[in-house]
Amino acid sequence: MKGWMGKFRALFILGVLALVLTGCGKENLTAFVPKGYGAESSMKLIILSIVVMTFVFLSVMIIYTIVLFRFREKKGQEDYIPKQVEGNKTLETIWTVIPIILVFVLAIPTVIATFDLADVSGAAEEGAISVDVTGNQYWWHFEYQGEEIQTSQDMYIPVGEKVYLNMISSDVIHSFWVPTIAGKMDVNVENTNQMYIEAYEEGVYWGKCAELCGPSHSLMDFKVVAVSPEEYEQWVADMQSVDPEEEPQDAVAVEGKELFEANNCMTCHAIGSTGSNVAPNLTNFGNRTKVAGFMEMTPENLADWIQDPEKFKPGNNMTGTYPDVSKEDAEKIAEYLMQLKHTEITPDVAGN
Ligand code: HEC
Ligand SMILES: [Cu+2]
Questions:
Q1: Which residue has the least CA distance to atom 9 on ligand 1?
Q2: Could you tell me if 246 and 113 are in contact, meaning their C-beta atoms sit under 8 angstroms apart?
Q3: Which ligand has the shortest distance to the CA of 208?
Q4: 4, 91, 128, 221: least CB-packed within 10 angstroms?
């Protein structure tokens, strides 16, 4: 009796926990409130599967309950062997055909959706937006084909339009996942995978690496910033007119720029097209929503990151690769980097 109670209690606690934890989802990081084509398509399949499974579960439970009561031992019952039904063609047919139908009900829409989501033929159409996406330990890089725009961490897209992604990895397998607007796809080293994303509503959608790729895998966050088509045009124009040589406005930032150059940050990072691509492109760093993809964008966080990235993202490729930067210098560099803003199109990050 006690054992049963114990089991029941564990189940109860798990049930409550499951209910409570489902409330922890973020609106912009959930597949259950789809705001894009791929996510909506997946959600329809999720609902279909749940309906089919609930039907199976209820059918079994109802038959089980009926059998339980109907075939209980009756008073004075002597014959315990029920009527034998082996070889009953009607029964055999029913329990073979119904599951086959259910499998088809699940399979046909799934296969149709899979092919639909894999159809990237629209990328060849005129005016289609194609972005080359590179997954790196532990950050994402985006290059807009034909636009000469490079960004890292935040990808801007216009709402209501399919954006085609050509995805590759520079090191190990990652997986590109923006649950609220799209399905997920692995990012491999040796071949380019293609998919498209489309957001229905403006917003900042959270992206996650969904393939264990190293100690900071869970911090490999990125954002998809969906703006109106007009704002997107403006963003493209703003990004294309960036003058990387432009001197910062105030004296601290000017000093920061000099320190940025003196500390060889550019052996890995690029501003505009000057520098290297083995680290996030910092051209529009001041427009980013986060530092290193996941930390709140504040001058303090940024200076801390510059001094000791290892503390925040263990195993990242910036750690230990440049001379010690003093707190004071880091703050000046931070000032400079935060001023690298080239567009007014900044997402409203409240609540994100
Ligand atoms: C050996 C290459 C290397 C050098 C040198 C280097 N970094 Fe980095 N940096 C990286 C890598 C790699 C990342 C991405 C880390 C991650 O998120 O996993 C990064 C991330 C950053 C970020 C966050 C970028 C973003 O998009 O949020 C900032 C800011 C930054 N570095 C500043 C600096 C500064 C300032 C210096 C010079 C003092 C510097 N880095 C030197 C490799 C380097
Ligand atoms: Cu990853």
A1: 318
A2: no
A3: 2
A4: 4
- 252: Cβ contacts below 8 Å, ≥ 6 apart: 332, 335, 336
pLDDT for residue 4:
67
Query: Residue 154, CB half-sphere, CA atoms under 13 Å: how many?
Result: 24
Kindly state the tokens that stand for 228.
């109106």
pLDDT greater than 80 at residue 323:
no
Burial of 51 (0-12, 13-18, 19+ CB in 10 A): exposed
pLDDT value for 214: 95
DSSP 321: -
Burial 91-120 (b: 16+ CB within 10 A, else e): eeeeeeeeeeeeeeeeeeeeeebeeebeeb
Rounded mean pLDDT, 188-201: 96
How far, in Å, CA of 230 to CA of 156, rounded?
12
Domains and CATH numbers, the chain: 26-70+82-227 (2.60.40.420), 251-338 (2.60.40.420)
Q: Are 204 and 347 in contact (CB under 8 A)?
A: yes
Of 251, 252, 271, the closest CA to residue 261 belongs to 271
Residue 60 has pLDDT above 90, yes or no: yes
C-alpha 295, offset from chain centre:
17
- Residue 238 is predicted with a pLDDT of 93
152 CA distance to ligand 2 middle (Å): 14
Measured from CB, residues less than 6 Å from any atom of ligand 1 are 138-139, 152-153, 260, 263-265, 267-269, 278-280, 285, 288, 291-293, 302, 305-306, 313, 316-318, 321-322, 325, 333, 337
How would DSSP label each residue in 212-272? --STTGGG--EEEEEE-HHHHHHHHHHHHT--TTPPPSSHHHHHHHHHHHHTTGGGT-EET
pLDDT of 344 above 80: yes
